[in-house]
Every structure is written in C-alpha cells, then in structure tokens.
Amino acid sequence: MYRNLYDTDCITWSPQGRIFQVEYAMEAVKQGTCCVGLRSDTHVVLCSLKRAVSKFAGHHQKLFKIDDHVGVAMSGITADAKVISNFMRNECFHHKYVYDAPIPVGRLVLMVADKSQANTQRSGKRPFGVGLLAAGYDDAGPHLFETCPSGNYFESYAMAFGARSQSSKTYLERNFENFPGLSPEELELHAMKALQASLAADAELTADTVSMAIVGKNQPWKELSTDEVQSLLDKLNAESAGEDVQM
Amino acid sequence: MYRNLYDTDCITWSPQGRIFQVEYAMEAVKQGTCCVGLRSDTHVVLCSLKRAVSKFAGHHQKLFKIDDHVGVAMSGITADAKVISNFMRNECFHHKYVYDAPIPVGRLVLMVADKSQANTQRSGKRPFGVGLLAAGYDDAGPHLFETCPSGNYFESYAMAFGARSQSSKTYLERNFENFPGLSPEELELHAMKALQASLAADAELTADTVSMAIVGKNQPWKELSTDEVQSLLDKLNAESAGEDVQM
Amino acid sequence: MYRNLYDTDCITWSPQGRIFQVEYAMEAVKQGTCCVGLRSDTHVVLCSLKRAVSKFAGHHQKLFKIDDHVGVAMSGITADAKVISNFMRNECFHHKYVYDAPIPVGRLVLMVADKSQANTQRSGKRPFGVGLLAAGYDDAGPHLFETCPSGNYFESYAMAFGARSQSSKTYLERNFENFPGLSPEELELHAMKALQASLAADAELTADTVSMAIVGKNQPWKELSTDEVQSLLDKLNAESAGEDVQM
Amino acid sequence: MYRNLYDTDCITWSPQGRIFQVEYAMEAVKQGTCCVGLRSDTHVVLCSLKRAVSKFAGHHQKLFKIDDHVGVAMSGITADAKVISNFMRNECFHHKYVYDAPIPVGRLVLMVADKSQANTQRSGKRPFGVGLLAAGYDDAGPHLFETCPSGNYFESYAMAFGARSQSSKTYLERNFENFPGLSPEELELHAMKALQASLAADAELTADTVSMAIVGKNQPWKELSTDEVQSLLDKLNAESAGEDVQM
Amino acid sequence: MYRNLYDTDCITWSPQGRIFQVEYAMEAVKQGTCCVGLRSDTHVVLCSLKRAVSKFAGHHQKLFKIDDHVGVAMSGITADAKVISNFMRNECFHHKYVYDAPIPVGRLVLMVADKSQANTQRSGKRPFGVGLLAAGYDDAGPHLFETCPSGNYFESYAMAFGARSQSSKTYLERNFENFPGLSPEELELHAMKALQASLAADAELTADTVSMAIVGKNQPWKELSTDEVQSLLDKLNAESAGEDVQM
Amino acid sequence: MYRNLYDTDCITWSPQGRIFQVEYAMEAVKQGTCCVGLRSDTHVVLCSLKRAVSKFAGHHQKLFKIDDHVGVAMSGITADAKVISNFMRNECFHHKYVYDAPIPVGRLVLMVADKSQANTQRSGKRPFGVGLLAAGYDDAGPHLFETCPSGNYFESYAMAFGARSQSSKTYLERNFENFPGLSPEELELHAMKALQASLAADAELTADTVSMAIVGKNQPWKELSTDEVQSLLDKLNAESAGEDVQM
Amino acid sequence: MYRNLYDTDCITWSPQGRIFQVEYAMEAVKQGTCCVGLRSDTHVVLCSLKRAVSKFAGHHQKLFKIDDHVGVAMSGITADAKVISNFMRNECFHHKYVYDAPIPVGRLVLMVADKSQANTQRSGKRPFGVGLLAAGYDDAGPHLFETCPSGNYFESYAMAFGARSQSSKTYLERNFENFPGLSPEELELHAMKALQASLAADAELTADTVSMAIVGKNQPWKELSTDEVQSLLDKLNAESAGEDVQM
C-alpha cells in the first residue's frame, strides 16, 4: 500500500501527462449523492437525492438558488459548494448592478470554470471538490451546464452525476430526444424516473429523499415543496403500475 | 505504525476524494465535551458539560455570548473557539454599526463557515479544530445552527456533539417533535435530560458540571446561574423519580 | 516502478539538461484527439476529431473562435485550453481597442508563448497541458502556428498533432506542396483526408466526429455546420471510390 | 527512537485531532521553574523560584512588571517571555494613550492569547514556548490569569505551573477557600508555602531563590526586596516550627 | 541509479563548491545544435546548423535579430531563448528611446548576464537553459560575445558551441589570426568551414541546414537567404576541390 | 551517525519542549575565543583573546566600538557580529538624533535581544550565531550585559564566555566581590588574570593575543594599544612572581 | 557516499555550531585561480593567474576596475563576481553623486560584506561563491581588504587566496615586513614572486597568464599591459638568475 507517484500536488505532471490531484478531486464528485438535470425547450429541471443530516436537522442541501433565473445542484464537498454558490450569487448581483440585466447563464458558468481551473494550476491551493449542474433561463432560452473540479464545463440537454449515476445516464440517453417539447411537469416526471434508476433495486424514492427544482420561461427558480414532490411520486407510481419503466 | 498516506496537509486529495486533514480536525470536535442544543418555536437552549480546569480556577468555558441575540456552545480546541467567537463578536458589532440592526443569525453563521472553509483550501494555515452550536433569535424567530471545521453548517431543531454525544442524539430524536410548543423551562429540562443521556451509567449531572444558556423571544442570551441549574436538576430528579426516562 | 529522478518540478534540471515536467506536459498534448491544420495562399483550415461527452451533451469542444480573423484547435487538457483561449480573446479585444485594428496573428501567438514559457520557469505554477494550432488571416496573409506547453511555437504550412497524428503528418508531407494554390473547398478536403489518415483501419469519419473551421481572405472564422461537414464527407467518399488515397 | 508522526509543524492535525507541536511547546512551560499565583478579594501575589545565571550575574528574571496595575510571572523560554511582556507593555501604553485609563487586565490577557493562538495556526512561525501568570488590579478588582502557548487562558483564584508544581497546586487546593479575606501579608505567606511545597524534601527556600511580587487595591505592582522576602521566610519558619505545614 | 547529491536546486552548494543545477543547465546548451561566430575588424558573422521542425514547417529558429546593429545565435531550450531575445529587444528599444542612440553591444550583453545570474541565486526560479552568441556593431566596432546560463560572458574573436562544436573550435583556433583583415564574404566562408567541421564525416552542409547572418560596418543585421547560402556553399565546394580543408 | 530528530529548523519544538536549532547556534558562541567582561562602580572592562588571521593581516576583530559610551566583545560567527554591531551603531545614531542624548545601554541591548529573538521564531531566517558582552556607561552608571543567540540577555557584574571560559568564570566568581571599588587599572588587571585562567597550562598571554577595552565615568570607549596591554602584562607578571594567582 | 548532515541550506545550524553551506561556498573561492595582493605605504598591487577561455577569446577576467581609486581581484564563481563588482560600481557612483567625493575603500568593502552576510542568513538565496581582494587608495592612504562568502572581511598588508595559495602566503609572510617602503615597481615584483610561488614546480609565469593591477598615491587604478607584465617578468628572471628566490 504505497502512495501513488506524481500525485503530490496539482502542479505536478505524471509522465503520462496526467494531473492526479485533479483526478482525485473528481472522485469526490463521483461519490456524492446522485444529481440529475434535464431540459425542454422552455424549462430546466434539477433533481437530487438528499441524505438526512439527522432526524431533526433536515437534509444536506443539494440544490442552491443562485438568482431568480439560475440555480445549481451539487455533488461532492458541501463546504466547497457553498463557497462556489456564494461566489455565483455575488457575480449575479454584480452583473445586475453594472448592466441592469440578469447575467447570461453561460457567462456565469464560465466564471466558475475559470475560478476552478485557477486552483488546478497553482501551489498553495487545492482543486475544488465539487461538481455542479447549473440550470438557468436567459434571453437565449433554457440552459443546463455541468462543471468539473478541473475547470471543464459542458452545455448539455440532460446530465447525471454522483454515486450510481450511470443508470440515470442510461435512462436519460434513452429518452432525451423526447424532452424538447415536454411540459414542465412531464420534465419533472422524467427527472424523477432518471433519479429512481440510480437507486438500488430495493430502494424507493420518497418525498423526503428527493429535492427537485425547476426554472424556465416565466418560471423563476423554484424548489418544489414536499407536497409537490409527493404528488409527482404518486403520478410516477400510478404510471409505473400501468407500464414497466425500462432502464 | 506508519503515517497515513495523503494526509500531509489540507490541500492534498486522497485518491478516494477525501481530505484527511479536515477529517482529523473534525476528530478534535468529537473528543470535546458533549454539547446539546434544541429549540422551540420561541426559544433556543444550549447545554454543555463542563470540565474543571482546577479546583480553584473554575471550568473550561464552553458557552460564549456573542451578542444579546446570539451565543454559541463549542467542542474542540478552546483557543480556536475563542478566536472564532471574537470574530463573531466583531461581525455583530460591525453589522449593528452599519445597518443599525442586529445581524441575522444565519448570516453570522455563514461568515463563520466561509472563514472555516478558507482554512481547508489553503496551505500555510490549518483547519480550525472547533465545532459550534450557534443559538440565536432574530426577525425570523429562533435558530439553531451547527458548524464544522470543514466549513459546513446545518440549521437544525436539535443537535448534540462531542464525546459520547450519540446517546444525547438518540434522546433528541425520540423527543424533538414535542419541542416546538414547549415553554423555555420545559426546553431546558429536555436539554438537561439529553445531556444526561451522554453520561456514563454511574455518572450524574451536578450544578457544577453543567453550563446552560437560553436565548429567544424577549429573552436576550442568558447563561443560567448555578442556582438556576440546580433548581432544574432538582426538578429533573423529582421527575425521574416518578417516571423512567427512556433513552 | 520508482519515480523518475529530477522530475519534481519545472525548475529542476536533469543532469542531461532536460526539464522533465515540461516534457510530461507535452505528453498531455500527444494524448489528446488528433488535430490537423493546413493553409493555402489565401485560407487556413483547422480540422479535428471530436469525442462525445455523452449522447445528449454534444462533444468536447476542440475548436475555439478567438476573433473574426483567428481561431484555434487544441489538444490536451480542455480546461487549460479554455483559459488560454480566453486570454487570447482578451488580447484581441485589447489590441482592437488600443490600435483600432485586428491583432497580427504572430503577435497573438507570441503572447501565448510567453505566457506558457513563464509557467515553465517558476515554482508554484505548472506548465500548461495544452498545444494549440492557431489559424488566422491578417495583412500579411494567412497564418498557421503551432504552440507547445514549453512556450515554443512554429509557423508552418501544415501541421498535425494529438493521438495517432503521425499518419496525418505523413499525408500532409506528401501533399503540402500542392496546397498554396488550392481553393478553400479543396483545402477542406485535404484536411479531411489528413484527419482520416489518423484513424484506425476500421474507423471512419462521420459528420458527428469531425469539427472543421476555416478562416482566410474575405472569410472570417467559420466553423462548418454538420451539413457542410457531411457534404464534404460525401465528396471525399465519392473521390476515394474513384481513386485510392495514398497515405 | 523514531520521530513521532504528525508533529512536523503546528498546522498538521494528527488523526486523533491533536496538534503535537503545540503540546511540545507546552512542555517547555512545564519544565520551567515553578511559579505560584493567588489572590484575595483585594490583592494578587505572584511568587516564583529563581535560578541563578551565575554567581555574579543575578538570576533569570521570572517576574516582569508590565504596568503599575499589572505584572506577570513566566515559565518556559525566557526570550519568548520578554517578547510577550514587551508586547503587553506596548498595549498598556497604547490603551492609556487612547482611553486615558489603565487597560482592564482581562482585555490585556485576551490580546496575549490572540497573539499566541495566531502562532499555532500558521506555518512559518512557531508557538510561543512560554506560559504566564498575569496578576493585576482594575475597576473590577484583583485578577489572576493563566495563559498557555496554545492561546488558551483561564481566570483563577490560585494557580501554579512549572517543574514540580503539582505539590504547589495541592497546597493551593487545600487552602484557597481561605484566601478571599486575607491581608496582603497573609497572602504572601500562603504563596511562600505553596512554593515551598514544590521543593524536593531536602531543599529550602532562601531569600536568594524566591521572587515575589504583589499588586492590588491601593498597591501598585511591587516586587519584594530581598529583605522583605527574608522577613517573610523568617515568619514562615517561626510558624512551621509551631505547626506542621500539611502539603 | 541514484540521484546525485547536492543538486536539488540552484541555491545549494556542493561540498566542493559547485552548483550542480547551473552545470546541468549548461548541459542543455551543449546538446543544442552547433553555432559558430567569428569576426573581422569590421564585421561579425554568425552561423548555425538548423534542424527541421517538419517538412512543411521550416526549421527551428536559431538566429534572432535583436536590432539593426545586433543579433544572436542560440543553443539550448528555444523557448528560453525567445524570452531572452524579447528581453533584449525591449532593452534596445528602451535605450534608443532614452538616449536616442543604439545600445552598445557590451551593455546589452551585460544585462542578459545579470538577468541570467539572478536565476542562479534564487529559489523559485530555474537557470535559463540557453547559451547565446551575440554579434553586433557599435561605435567601438564589431563585437562577438558568448553568454552562459551561469550569467558568465566573454568577448571573443571567434567562438563555437553546441553539439560536436569541439571540431569547429579547433578549426577556429587554427585560423582566427587571419580573420581581422578579411572581407565579409571571406569571413562567411570561414564560418561555413568551421560549421562543416562539426559535422559527422559523411554529413554535408546544404542550403537548407545552415543559417547564416552578418552584421558590421555599414551592414545592418542581415540573415542570408537560401540562395546566398547556396552560393557560399558552391564556392566552398569549388575551393575544397582545389585544396583540402585542414581541420 | 544519524541526524538528530526535531532539529530541522528553529520553528520546530522537540517533544521535550526544546528548540535545537537555537541550541546549536549557541554552540557557535561556545566555540569562539574566550571573552571576559567585568565592572567596578565606575568602569567596565572587556577583554578577549584574539586569533591571528595571518601574519600580515592582523587579528580577527573581537572588540567593536559602538558609540562613545558603549562597545561590545563578541564570540561566534564574526560576520553575524558585524551585522549586529552595525545595527547597534545605527540605533545609537538614531537615538542621539531623536532625543539628543546617548541611548541608555539597557535599551540598546533590549533592541539586540528583540532582533535576535525574532530570528528564532520565524522560518526563512536562522538564529544569529553570536554572543555579545556589551559594556557601557550611562546616567545609571556602568553596565555589563551578555546577549545570547536565543534573544536572552542578562545584566551582570562579571561574565566570561567562549572556549574554555569556565576557568575564567571560576576566577571571576572568586574575586567579583572585590570589583566595585576598584580603580580602572586594577579592573584591567583582574580582566587579564581571568582571561589568563582560560589558557591551557603551557600557554601565555602576550600583547599580541589580547584585546582590551574600557569604558566608564569620564572615560569614553577606548581600546588599549599594544603598549598599554604590554605594560599591563608586565605588572601582571611582576605580581604573579610575588604571589601565586589562585584559580 | 551519503550526503552530509545539516548542510541543506544556509539557515541550518549543525549541532557543532557550523553552517556548512557557507563553508561550501568558501570552497568555491579556494578552488579559483590564485590571487595575490600586497601594499606599500603608498600603493597596492593585485596580481592573479588567468586561465584562458579559449585561444581566441582571451582569458577569464580576474581583475575588475571598480572606480578610479579602487579595484578588485576575484576567486570563485565569475558570474557572482560580476554581480558584486557591478554592485560596487553603483555604490561608488552613488557616493560620488551624493557626497561629491570618492567613497572610502573601507565603507565600500563593508557594503559588500553586508550584502554577502545577508545571503547567509536567509532562505531562498544562496551565499555568494566569490572572494575578493579589494585594493584602493583614499584619504587614509592605500588599503587592501579581503572579503569572504560569509560576509567576513579583513584589512591586511598582504594576502593570497585561491588554488595552491598557501605557498604564496608563505612567501608573503617571509617578506611583508619589507613592503611599506617599497616603490611601486618593487611591489609589483614581489607580487609576481608571490604568485610564482603558487605554481607547480615545472610551471612558469608568462605575460599571458598573469594579470596585474596597481592603485595608489597619484596612481589611479591601472591594469598592466602585456608588455609591462613581460618587462616585469624579464626583471624577475634576471634577478632569479643572480639569486635564488626563497619561498
């Protein structure tokens, strides 16, 4: 059980051209709880499993409102996520103040990516241990972005990450061509199904273990209440009684 | 007995995406004396075991008044706690000076969390070795927060940490649904019982080994005097003579 | 499996006068996807394989527009490439603002090279892990440059790098003397053929796996649409049905 | 004889949540000569063994006057103590200049504690290797504080530290309840006895090996002269001839 | 195959009073391609082998024009050479701006030497891995300087360095006494012959593998065109057909 | 022959609460040549062995004049001593300029001590390797101080340090009670005898191997000439012919 | 062949109170070519062996003119010597500008010593690897100083250092008492003889391998021409034909 070579810090290249410390930070994202994001032509939905802190303390926060038109789901180190979401809120505020208009989602994500990359190329800091799904709506319509600890980011129609997210991805890949035209509620149901796919066979989603948020046309960022989540789950169960969900 | 790998400092990721130095700092919190916090709809109570420094020097301070409307209980390295509580006092003062209003409790906790997180992502500093239960009352009612060395924090209805705090948590989990409507004194009694649950079988609470403080509606932060603690203990014993407390 | 000697960081010389950390960063470029660039007397074409992020997220971006008259193809660490391309955009903007004229391509590349070299001679930073093919058109005609993590750069008539790029280079070497007089479309076809040469025997280019961009005389930077790429592929196949492409 | 693990510097946590470098600095305090402090309702007395530098150079200074109303006894690294006592003198002077009033003793001690803690959480510095007993008198009456290299501090009625101080503590614990009402001279005698308790069986206090100072109501900081110490010793011996001092 | 001792960095002396990191940087110069410089009473000629980047990209640049009256040939790390040549251009420009006169060659070389030396006596930087032959003409006539990674420099009548340069040096030593009175073209021919001496027995100079530049009285820095080089080679061959060149 | 543990640098505590690097610096003082200082009620004399640099270069300077009223003898690293004596000269000058009065000797020594202590608590510097005997005369009469690399200092009536100084100390201890009333010349003779005590049995003091200086009432700092030293030696020998000096 | 202990850097003391890195830097001086300096009552002469760079490049510069009234001979790392001599030139210039008078030689040497010492007490720098013989003439007459990498310096009547300098020293020791009254030429001849003493038995001085300079009363710094050196050698040989030079 020896230490790997060339993984001292994020400014050391391995002979194969890899930077292990950044890869290790990505591991923190992979081991967070599963998050799912998907979008139609008008809306974006984020959905995440939530782990209870304790019976009386609620759950670890997985969804963060950034501004009226944008929010994020996170996987990884929560404290890092909070720092980044505060950074994003400041940038939103600053942009509104300077330009009197909400910040375009892509520009906001670019700022997060730059901030993240900087921490992968400097000694004395460590890469952030958090991946984000950023959902927003601006003049160019709805957007869904994924950001990584490396500072990389992608725009996407649907995305899932975190523990056991592969099954969610499979569900999304099978269905994402239907998403563009869907209504917000249909989108929410798909998100629910994708999240469910990430569960172990004998586990089930409950209103207490799912966080869901939506943002879109004429729909500022809204995190669904437990009742709204429950009513979605009821529909889901009714549906899946009729037909077998294929994962 | 070799040193763990990847635990050199807080800017080194392990291949599993963990930051050991932060986890070690959390260990300092776990080994402090037990602290309990709980809240009703109007008040918050903090309660802590206290260890004597020496017969003539009183006890290690576990409860710190921050401002009239907020105070903290701490577990871990006392010197670190004092630095953080001074920081909180300054922020309270500054907020009052700028806005002519007491700082909202959540904002104050956020500042502590940011300060803590910064020390987990920079070389040349170490993570703080202290966890806080912050109790306060502001326009939005009573608040109970827990902060960690990682910079993470949670709002909660009840919480316990420190050595042997698991039993206290169990007590709180069994009873916290009754807390919202309770009177301040009932809340104090529950805090006492939860703390007692953390003791070894043959140990008993005395007025000398318990610190208790309360803050809430029309109730600025007040640390209970030894007499007040004693009278609570008397009630507790009277009660437990009548009925067996279930832990 | 011991660690190499003298490869601690980029400020350590080996006894043979080499700086291994820079060589390792170059390895990251070699393992990126293959990129090809070539130019006529009037135009420059960049062409790259693209790897899908996922079925619904499109592809890793390989071509970046910098300004109307210049763009780059990258191989290596994408996050590093984004930082460098943002740097280039800022320099373009700045030059336009100060001189009211587009920046000469060579000057822009020199700035990237200086920035890259600086990271190879200072502790506390790491060399960038990205190589660029920069294509542009200015008063001195079309330009094609290659930049390396070491801060080195070359002007060239044709160039290929990334995984399996040796076969592309061979194709380019055999044909580059014909390039000067070619029309833009002929140039695009040659780029396509050179890229195809880098594929494994049983692999084939599709409109989904190729990015292509052109810049030149009266032709601002334009990334070809999927349809345009497809029509090029059709011509290519028609052609290669008639004659065997020699690699 | 291997080096302990996790004791590289004061910004490294051990897996058990300890910071060894701070604990080692505390060891320097434990190995200094014994110091004793105790207070009545009106006065505070500090008393210390003193080690000769050489026959003609006097003794290592153990008691430091800070201001008219406050002084300290130290155990540990003398040079560190001198730096801290100069720091305290400056703060006293500064407070007097700004507020035209002597600094409250508690505030002064808090400043020392903050300065000490800062050195336990930063690389490039080491924790101070000195513990202080600070004795002072202000509007709130007499004060006795103990400070540690960790930045921790306690207010106390009586305290002893340094080599073999456990016996002194035992003496103080047995007698401190009588202290509040005592006259200054009675207090001095108790300090002498407590110090004597720390001696090996065959050793005896002499006017040359004891430093004693007093501060209190209408009594600015005064270090006793050799004659005054001798007269105290005479009384002590007369007394102990009559009754056996119980340690 | 253990690492040498005392070669960690350029601020570590070996017990024999050597600084290995500087010696290693000098190794990079020795392994560059061969460069030759020589001067008459009126002109200086620089001449270098050039290695092709690729068939279509031209050659690695070995000769750099700094100003009208000065240029350099380099051996070692090209990216370092580019940084230094830019530095030299800036200093030339600055001198012209301030004094309205071209910078004396010796002063320019001194600046390069100081810059190089600084990197050999400071941690956090590495010695430059490049040696220069600086050729220039100023009020004091023609100059030829050699600079080293150590910050050392020499003025010389003739010089050669890089791979296999020993044979070139031998040629120069045998002939340099004839140089002062030579015409520019004769000087160029001698440079060519000296360079040829560095080749393996079966290798031959071609117009494609030689760079040559000249600067002198009424002759601003000029890099010879391929045709001019070819015509020199023709004369060389004609000559050596008649007489055997002695090396 | 392994390296000691915990002696990496001066900011590392050993588990026993020691700082080895400071102790090692003190070793440099112990191995310097022997210095002796002693004072009467009106004068202070410093006396030191001096080691020849070479036959024609005179001797290593051991006594340094700081100002008219103060000077030092040093043992340890000469270059460090020169830096400190320059520092002292500057402080003297500065004090005279600001207050129009010579600096009190104690204040000057305190400044040296603070400067020395700072180097024992900071990384990136090393403790000074020099001990001083500072002799001066101010409004409070004559002063003799000893300073250590640790930043510690003592006022004393007589002192010796350096190689084999134990015998000198023994001489001083036996005689120092007679010093207060002595005339300057008697004081000088005692200094000479104390120094002689440090010599090996067969060695003898000569005018060439002794430096002596005196400062006191109406006696600005004066280093004795070789003749004056010789005449002292003559008296010493005459005396010791009559009576046996007891060491 | 293990690395010495405690020689990591110049801020680490060995347990014996030595700083090895400074001693290693002194080794660089010892291995430089031999330099000799000596002075009469009116003049100072510096003399040094010179090593050829190459047949056509002249020799490594060993003597540096600093100002009209002062110059140095160096042994050790040439690039370091150049930095120091430039520093000295700047200080001369600055002094002349501010005081309108040439800088006293001793003050100039003190500045070099301070600069050198600073590099022995700070991490991130290395001690200079150069020793100087500084010769000058000012209001106080002629001066000859030696400086060391440690920052130490000595004024001297004659001095030699560098490889095999012990024999030169022996010569100087035997003859230096005759120097004060000598004429410049006689002084030069002695310098030559001292230098010759350092040669191996079968080696001989030639006008090409000796540098000599003189400065003194009404004699600004002058480096002797080859002819002047040759004429000295001729006299030397004539003399030694008559009498045997005793070494």
Automatic annotation (TrEMBL), chains A, B, C, D, E, F, G:
* Entry keyword set: Cytoplasm, Hydrolase, Nucleus, Proteasome
**Main location group:** cytoplasm
EC number of this enzyme? 3.4.25.1
Question: Do the record's keywords include Protein biosynthesis?
Answer: no
Q: Proteasome alpha-type subunits domain spans which residues?
A: 6-28
Q: Where in the cell is it found?
A: Cytoplasm; Nucleus
Is-annotated flag, keyword Cell inner membrane? no
Give the Pfam families listed for this entry.
Proteasome (PF00227), Proteasome_A_N (PF10584)
Q: What Gene Ontology cellular component terms go with this record?
A: cytoplasm; nucleus; proteasome core complex, alpha-subunit complex
Provide the GO MF annotations for this entry.
hydrolase activity
Family statement drawn from the similarity comment of this UniProt entry = Belongs to the peptidase T1A family.
Protein name, UniProt field: Putative proteasome subunit alpha type 1
Q: Which organism is it from?
A: Toxoplasma gondii (strain ATCC 50853 / GT1)
